[in-house]
From TrEMBL:
Xref: InterPro entries: BglG_antiterminators, HTH_11, Mga_HTH, PRD, PRD_sf, PTrfase/Anion_transptr, PTS_EIIA_type-2_dom, PTS_EIIB_2
Any single biological process term in GO: regulation of DNA-templated transcription
Origin organism lineage: Bacteria, Bacillati, Bacillota, Bacilli, Lactobacillales
The protein, known as: Transcriptional regulator-antiterminator
Pfam families: HTH_11, Mga, PRD, PTS_EIIA_2
Species of provenance: Streptococcus merionis
Alphabetically ordered keywords of this record: Activator, Repeat, Transcription, Transcription regulation
Length: 641
């Protein structure tokens, strides 16, 4: 179905939307196999449609046609909401979604000509999309094979194909996946009645599986549905090596479930397929695993939790480390983790990137703890499992009600009388509870005769004070809400300067004028810190050790590298601003904050991480620092954050 009167018009506009540079008329007419005169007529027709939707095709002399936008959002809404055969692939993301689904659900060879005609792209664009596609398939040990005269086809183990379908297709929209409102699983498994299968599943498992996470419950359902569909289509497992033993009661229920599915859908599960179904259930709901296989897990889990607690105490003196709920939650989580380890399973965390970006301090603590567990027990945690532990840490940190802020003293100078100064005092106490240990009110005349105002951390005044002896915040009595913001900014500045005393220095601030790579930046910063005597010779090795575990990027533009080990002599934070970008893993970051924090100052990492999160969420602040890339701007931004 076309948006316009005929498909060629859609194809022409689709081509112009994809290409940022002007396209010569000969290229367009050659592609559409019509004359230049016809193309000119077609473009006039297209313009009649799109000019009212914020776009217009123009001719640039000696270059060709290009699309210009008067309202890009209006045009995108018009173009992307049409149900046509070509507009769906106007972006790399939409083409990638199509390619993933095509290759994972198709066992036949697919020619390059077919793909180019469907996606409406050049050979170079298709090859570029294939490079990205290979990156998505690589974690599942799947590859796209190219056979001369036949085309492309997916190759890999059936178990890995099923995992890729679930993770890359079913879970593309996580919210819909969790709520069961997606239709893609029904479409892909269309040889199995979705409603009938759902009824059977609920009959056997709804009262048995009690999970606090909809994610794992949904995983079980989609894994079993896909397995049944693949077996019915003839795509069966050739290899499956996991050893599973469910408890007697659970094993009987799973056996009855399998028998009913075989009967209702006229299919037969091999013994290997039955083991796989049990594995899918056990991996997502480890409680089904026979306790005789994991009888030593209780003691081992308790030892691991104790190791985590002791290690946290060495890193942080905060009260949350001793949180009893944290201990209980960690123990339950580690016990389930050890059960999954018995069957050689690996649980994904759909919120991995969210946790890394939103709780970077907790995630970093979890990584440090995981390395301690490796050293003591030779048990390795995946990045997904580390993120689950980080969530427990973040929860404990949020529950910690102990304030780490120093209480300050405040002087109020008010020339409008005692009553009004009391109103200001009351408003300040409401806005900043428990922040000021001492608040003293002065009239203007009393202030002039006071000599010890320097003992106050903050001084505010309703009247102009002409003195340079101490900073005074002048507030407006007609706009007390704005005045509260002025006080809050001052508090943030004091807290920043106090908590980050000696962490920052203009000698440890760098602006890179040219694009560079992660490795070069780390070597450069390591050398500077070595020259300043802040780290020892193992620092770079400890940094690289941390980078190997998990990327230290936060969001798409910020990296926070830091070491694993005891190579820091004196704590410091080294900011780097790179307007032209740094190639960091698979991203281009503009800001690097190198954390060189020793264990005695580990609490300062949490405080700066909190400030960093405000910076991450503010495009305005990031743009400001890129445009005004200097030390003073950096200090101003973070002292007010």
């Amino acid at each position: 179905m076309s948006i316009f009167d005929y498909q060629r018009l859609d194809n022409i506009l689709n081509l112009l939307v994809q290409r940022e540079e002007a396209i010569h008329i000969e290229e367009i007419s050659s592609y559409c196999n019509v004359s230049d005169r016809t193309i000119r007529s077609d473009i006039n027709t297209i313009n009649d449609y799109i000019v009212k939707h914020g776009a217009h095709i123009v001719l640039i002399r000696k270059q060709g046609y290009i699309i210009e936008y008067s309202d890009k959002n209006e045009f995108d809404t018009f173009w992307n909401n049409q149900d046509t055969g070509t507009f769906l692939f106007t972006t790399s993301t939409s083409r990638l979604t199509y390619l993933i689904r095509l290759f994972l659900t198709n066992n036949s060879y697919i020619t390059q000509e077919y793909l180019q005609s469907i996606l409406f792209v050049s050979q170079n664009t298709l090859y570029s999309d294939f490079r990205i596609l290979k990156q998505y398939l690589s974690p599942y040990s799947l590859k796209i094979a190219n056979k001369s005269n036949l085309g492309y086809r997916l190759e890999g183990e059936e178990q890995n194909i099923r995992s890729a379908i679930i993770n890359l297709i079913f879970k593309e929209n996580l919210t819909d996946y969790l709520t069961g409102s997606i239709t893609v699983d029904r479409n892909i498994c269309n040889n199995i009645s979705y409603r009938q299968f759902n009824d059977i599943f609920l009959n056997y498992f709804s009262n048995m599986i009690h999970l606090d996470s909809d994610y794992f419950y949904r995983n079980i359902f989609s894994s079993l549905l896909l397995a049944a569909s693949r077996v019915k289509s003839g795509h069966t497992l050739k290899n499956f090596n996991q050893s599973i033993k469910l408890d007697r009661h659970s094993a009987k229920i799973v056996e009855n479930f399998i028998q009913e599915v075989e009967s209702e859908f006229n299919l037969i599960f091999s013994d290997m397929e039955k083991d796989y179904l049990q594995f899918c259930i056990a991996e997502n709901y480890p409680n089904f695993i026979d306790d005789s296989l994991t009888k030593s897990n209780q003691q081992l889990a308790e030892e691991i939790v104790k190791t985590i607690q002791n290690f946290l105490k060495s890193l942080s003196s905060s009260a949350w480390v001793l949180d009893s709920s944290l201990e209980k939650n960690l123990l339950e989580h580690i016990k389930l983790f050890l059960k999954v380890q018995v069957i050689k399973g690996n649980r994904n965390n759909p919120l991995l990137e969210t946790i890394k970006n939103s709780f970077p301090y907790a995630f970093d603590l979890a990584i440090n703890c995981s390395q301690e567990i490796v050293r003591n027990y030779n048990i390795h945690f995946s990045e997904d499992e580390i993120s689950y532990i980080a969530l427990h840490f973040a929860n404990a940190i949020e529950r910690d009600s102990t304030s780490t802020l120093k209480q300050l003293s405040l002087a109020i100078i008010c020339g409008n009388g005692r009553t009004f100064s009391s109103i200001i005092e009351a408003k300040i106490k409401r806005h900043f509870p428990n922040r000021f240990a001492k608040i003293v009110k002065f009239s203007y005349s009393t202030f002039q005769n006071t000599e010890d105002l320097e003992k106050f951390d903050i001084i505010i005044s309703t009247v102009p004070i002409k003195t340079s002896d101490f900073p005074v915040i002048q507030i407006n009595i007609d706009d007390l809400d704005t005045s509260m913001n002025q006080i809050e900014n001052k508090l943030s500045e004091l807290n920043f300067l106090e908590s980050n005393d000696d962490l920052f220095s203009i000698n440890r601030f760098l602006v890179l004028e040219e694009r560079t790579k992660k490795e070069d930046v780390l070597h450069l910063l390591n050398n500077k810190l070595l020259e300043q005597g802040l780290v020892n010779s193992n620092f770079l090795k400890d940094i690289q050790k941390r980078e190997e575990i998990s990327s230290t990027t936060i969001s798409d533009s910020i990296a926070v590298p830091h070491p694993l080990g005891d190579s820091v002599i004196k704590s410091s934070i080294f900011p780097v601003i790179a307007p032209k970008g740094i190639i960091w893993d698979d991203k281009i970051v503009k800001f690097v904050f190198l954390f060189a924090i020793n264990s005695e100052n580990s609490n300062q990492m949490q405080q700066f991480y909190d400030q960093l999160l405000d910076f991450i969420s503010s495009d305005k602040l990031q743009t400001k620092l890129l445009k005004e890339a200097n030390y003073q701007t950096f200090m101003d931004i973070f002292s007010l954050n």
